[in-house]
Amino acid sequence: MTDRDDDHSITSGAYVLGALSPEEAAEFEAALSASPELQEEVAGLRAAALALAHAPSPVQPSAELRRSVLAAIDGMPQQPPAATPPPASAAVTPIAAVLKETAPRYAEHHVSRRRGRRARPLLALVAAAAAVLIFFGGTLVGGILNGVSDERTADQFAALNAAPDVARTVTELPNGGTAALVASRSLGMSAVVLNDASGELPEGKTFQLWYMEPDGPTSAGLVQPGDSSTYRMLEGDYSGEPVAMTIEPRGGSKTPTAPAMVLANGA
Amino acid sequence: MDVQPTEALLSEVSRGDREAFTRLYDRTAPRVLGLIRRVLVDPAQSEEVAQEVYLEVWQSASRFDPNRGSGTTWILTMAHRRAIDRIRASQSGRDRDLRVGIRDYSPDYDNVSEQAEIRLENERVRQAMQRLTELQRQAITLAYYEGFTQSEIADRLGIPLGTVKTRLRDGMIRLRDEMGVAS
Question: What is the mean pLDDT of chain B?
Fold first, then answer.
């Protein structure tokens, strides 16, 4: 077998074993999003990789560990169950219909809120995006994502992609490239993978991700596209809510100041 | 004999049931610690990581979805992730000696009593591993149990990256087929 880097199919084994660097994982992930055959292979190999956890011989823990674990959970708070998904009828409402109904109203609101600033060319982006929703409001503060080269992040990304309920949604960007949302409710994690998306951003701008929660959008962090493929773990807990992306001034905004592309309608 | 399924115990744990947590711990801890020890070797570090795993189980039991797989696998997946995190963080200088030799896969249950079904699963995986070629088993072991990336494996073994990829993939395909895992 040759050493062709562009032949993603032979990387599937390394991928399910978590043996890829962050860059390699993102690249493979992009190929995975586009190939049902590869997705099927990965599903089977992932199941085999999970089985590897069962092979080592059991080791009897010390009595001290047991005592220590049981003492540590005393009073330790627990995560609430993931939010109940919206009813199916709401989940499948065509976004275009929502846009038609709400865009003019919110667009007006947008203009006044931004003190008459002209709507950015992003509107073109919105019109072209496959699934679009415009929204404003929300009060929560965003933040900046951690460095991508961090190996812990890479492991999180690998764990996310290995989650049994991992869902991938690819959105074509109007100026070329794609933004894929990778999300798992069971892990409470999500990530965005940008491919060839750098043509999308004006100078001094950044992509910002948002969890679209009932009481308004919550920032899920910023991402700056790289030359080819970039991924970021989203901040905060993913519990199946819709996720959207906007173009914001570098440094991010507290609430979306531009129309948003919906990357996933929620699980 | 504790016959309540692990999945049901997790559901009770998610509602703050300490007694269910204790039973869950007693049932799964030897397997969890066994996996972590397989990766980290060091007993003290391994127990530290096992403790982290169980605190995560306590905190996030509500995230477990019984429709997505067994409770034991859910906990072991967490344990593997944390053990690999630890080994990569603590040995970032990559001064790990290359433990290329494949460890003994023969059963070692002297001090551990377990549910028969868990033991059966363990035996099934071991046997499937024995069906791999030596080189496939080596590559998979380095990746999964030692936490090396494919590039690191290529460096250590002095073989092309493409060869590593092929060994990992062919090995996993054979493992899948031997295990009868539905894809």
Answer: 84
Q: A181-193 pLDDT, tens per residue?
A: 888 888 888 888 8
Quote the pTM value. 0.57
- Could you tell me if residue B79 is inside a domain? yes
Where a domain ends, among B29, B59, B91?
A: B91
Counting every residue written for chain A, the total comes to 267
Q: Which domain holds residue A122?
A: 88-264
Task: Report the SS3 class of residue B183.
Answer: coil
Instruction: Give B58's contacts in chain A (Cβ within 8 Å).
Output: 73, 76, 78
Helix (H), strand (E) counts: chain B: 8, 0
List pLDDT tens digits, range B87-116.
988 764 344 444 433 343 333 433 344 555
Q: Which long-range contacts (CB under 8 A, 24 or more apart) does A1-5 make?
A: A1/B162, A1/B163, A1/B165, A1/B166, A2/B162, A3/B160, A3/B161, A3/B162, A3/B163, A4/B162
How far off is chain A from B38, nearest CA to CA, in Å?
6
Q: Which residue has the tokens 């995986």?
A: B125
Domain assignment of residue A44, yes or no: yes
The lowest-confidence range among A37-46, A249-258, B26-35, B137-146 is A249-258
Measured in degrees and rounded to the nearest 5, phi and psi for residue A194 equal -100, 130
A150 and A236 assigned to the same domain: yes
- A2 at the B interface (CB within 8 A)? yes
Question: Does A37 have pLDDT greater than 60?
Answer: yes
Q: Looking at the structure, do residues B87 and B122 belong to the same domain, yes or no?
A: no
- Radius of gyration from C-alpha coordinates of chain A: 20
B157 domain-assigned: yes
Arithmetic mean of pLDDT, B117-123: 70
Q: Is the ipTM of this complex over 0.90?
A: no
Q: Is B126 inside a domain boundary?
A: yes
- Nearest CA-CA partner of A176 in A198, A192, A191: A198
Interface probe with A: pick from B90, B150, B152, B153, most Cβ of A within 10 Å? B150
* Residue ranges making up the domain that contains B144: 114-183
Segment A78-94 mean pLDDT: 53
Given an 8 Å threshold on Cβ–Cβ distance, is B25 in contact with A12?
A: no
In total, how many domains does chain A have? 2
Q: Comparing A47-56, A91-100, A236-245, B141-150, which segment has the lowest mean pLDDT?
A: A91-100
Point out the residue among A3, A47, A81 whose CB comes nearest to the CB of B160: A3
Domain count, chain B: 2
Q: Does A115 touch chain B (CB under 8 A)?
A: no
